[in-house]
Design a protein that fits this description.
By secondary structure, the protein is an alpha+beta fold. The protein has helices at residues 19-37, 66-72, 78-93, 98-117, 122-143, 151-166, 175-188, 260-282, 297-305, 316-326, 379-401, 411-425, 431-452, 457-469, 487-490, 496-514; strands at residues 15-18, 48-51, 60-63, 145-146, 198-204, 212-215, 217-219, 230-239, 288-291, 309-311, 330-331, 343-353, 356-362, 370-376, 404-407, 475-478, 483-486, 493-495, 518-521.
């Protein structure tokens, strides 16, 4: 006889949310993440204070960078995690637009929730969104401009993009100064895209305006005792090897001796072993040795006697970048001098920045290498300035690869929204409703920018739509005066690559969440009680 009792096939501790409950849970989580960061959007956006916990307990960060905020926020909601991931990907791919992509995806889901309440099937909504995204991207590319054939105009485009990117950051008050630094650094790369050749050093003290770009490479380390302080025509060996073996390092070893003479013999054997290693290094015909690890007193003395500049404990990022820009490689063994690439540069000397001494490498093999030194009153200001400058460098680097640009200030969002709305009028069926929702979500971005500045967003966005409807497709929001203005005249420019990625990444994330009808949480792993003896 067949039992009519419900059969449970899942682990009793597993959890499942179905249909409307699962969909509402996803919507609520994603919209909450969008609401969290949308107040940081635009040139008048607000900052967040992030207080660290655990190993970063008490560490303070003040930022309005979407990726930094979301990376620091622990979320349990699966849909919220998807938005956090697209923000991280946006940051890794193009460096900017991390807040915009999250807010746009959240607003799409907000509009999608209203359509679900109207009993429109999720697959119909997704189909409409896909059409709308294609139309929006086509309109965006059609409105783009390319000045790469004119070096002067393209450089001006790069400066405008850097100013626009920095206008929503802590560097807004000094955007002219930092825009020039960023453009100069990226132009030096000559289209190679090697952002790792641009080093950023943070030095507390002074003001942000005292930040500068230095041609060459700077290393925040000191030269060893009694060693040359200035080297011309440097031949540099970059290594990651232990130089502290003046003691037995075999784990768990124990040596018993019955006299101080035998102890002295062991010490002499260790010294001899270290001397052999130093002799192998010297045979490479070098005059500069830079090590990732410590260099103890005895090998440091041997290097000084040989007239070699020895630098210890260089951070790993530092020596990787140093090996790149000097044309060398990081080595850990020294038995084959002919097989190792030695780095070169014209001059190594000590310089002073504030009260600190740094090493400057001039005339490096990779001529585009440079260092930007950021000064500031507090560590929080310097850290946020570094994040802002990094975003600008990434956007400029993306623009050098994809040279087309568009106008900012909500201009491109309005242009895309109108294109989608016009196409929706000619689309039969319920997909047209989804396309209208997509257009409405696009228009929320200039609305939020105006709201964050304290202006009447409804009035400004309606004026902006009217201007675009009349054919003035270069108009956007001027947040300095609280009115609409021509973005071409104001020089508010953005990279097509950044805006394009914002649209399709947000649309794809929203589609993924919209298609969800079940959320299944696995049962937690059972932990066995530890009955072993202490």
């Amino acid at each position: 006889m067949v039992s009519l009792n419900p059969v449970r096939i899942m682990n009793p501790e597993a959890d499942i949310e179905k249909a409307e409950i699962a969909r509402m849970s996803s919507f609520i989580g994603a919209i909450a993440i969008g609401d969290l960061v949308k107040s940081t959007l635009g040139p008048k956006g607000m900052d967040k204070i992030l207080v660290g916990m655990g190993k970063n307990d008490g560490k303070i960060q003040v930022t309005n960078d979407g990726a930094t905020i979301l990376r620091s926020v622990g979320v349990d909601n699966p849909a919220a995690k998807i938005l956090v991931d697209i923000s991280k990907t946006q940051d890794a791919e193009v460096g900017d637009g991390t807040t915009s992509v999250t807010v746009l995806a959240a607003e799409l889901l907000r509009e999608g929730e209203k359509l679900i309440e109207l009993k429109i099937h999720p697959q119909t909504i997704v189909a409409g969104w896909r059409k709308a995204a294609g139309i929006a991207l086509a309109a965006l590319e059609k409105a783009s401009r390319d000045n790469s054939s004119d070096e002067g105009l393209f450089r001006e485009d790069l400066l405008n993009i850097a100013r626009t990117t920095l206008s929503s950051k802590i560097l807004n008050q000094h955007k002219e100064h930092f825009a020039k630094l960023a453009v100069e650094a990226v132009v030096r790369l000559k289209g190679s895209g090697k952002l790792e050749a641009i080093q950023i050093i943070k030095k507390q003290g002074g003001t942000l305006l005292e930040s500068f770009l230095d041609e060459g490479f700077l290393l925040d380390k000191k030269i060893g005792v009694n060693q040359p302080k200035r080297i011309q025509k440097a031949r540099i060996l970059v290594a990651n090897t232990p130089m502290d073996t003046d003691k037995i390092k075999v784990f768990g070893s124990r040596v018993n001796v019955d006299s101080t003479d035998k102890l002295a013999e062991i010490e002499n054997a260790e010294k001899e072993k270290m001397k052999e290693k130093v002799d192998k290094i010297i045979k490479h015909n070098i005059n500069v040795f830079i090590n990732r690890q410590l260099i103890y007193n005895y090998p440091e003395q041997l290097f000084a006697d040989a007239g070699i500049m020895a630098i210890e404990h260089a951070d790993f990022d530092g020596i990787e970048r140093l090996a790149l820009v000097t044309g060398g490689e990081i080595v850990s063994t020294f038995d084959s001098p002919g097989a190792i690439k030695i780095g070169t540069c014209d001059l190594i000397e000590e310089i002073m920045i504030g009260e600190d001494k740094l090493l400057k490498f001039s005339g490096v093999a990779v001529g585009e290498a440079c260092t930007i030194v950021i000064r500031g009153a507090t560590s929080q200001i310097i850290d946020e300035a570094e994040r802002s400058l990094h975003d600008a460098l990434c956007v400029l680097n993306a623009t050098v690869k994809e040279t087309r640009t568009i106008y900012g200030g909500g201009c491109s969002e309005t242009l895309m929204a109108l294109a989608v709305s016009e196409s929706a009028k000619e689309t039969p069926g319920k997909e047209a409703v989804a396309m209208e929702a997509f257009a409405k979500a696009l228009l929320t971005l200039p609305t939020i920018i105006a709201d964050n500045a304290g202006y009447d967003s409804a009035e400004l966005v309606s004026q902006l739509r009217a201007k675009h409807a009349k054919g003035d497709a270069s108009y956007g929001l001027n947040m300095d005066s609280g009115e609409i203005a021509c973005m071409k005249e104001l020089g508010i420019t953005e990279s097509l690559a950044v805006k394009r990625r914002v649209v399709f990444a947000a649309a794809e994330a929203a589609e993924m969440i919209m298609r969800v009808d079940n959320i299944i949480r696995s049962a937690p792993r059972q932990r066995q009680e530890d009955r072993s003896r202490c």
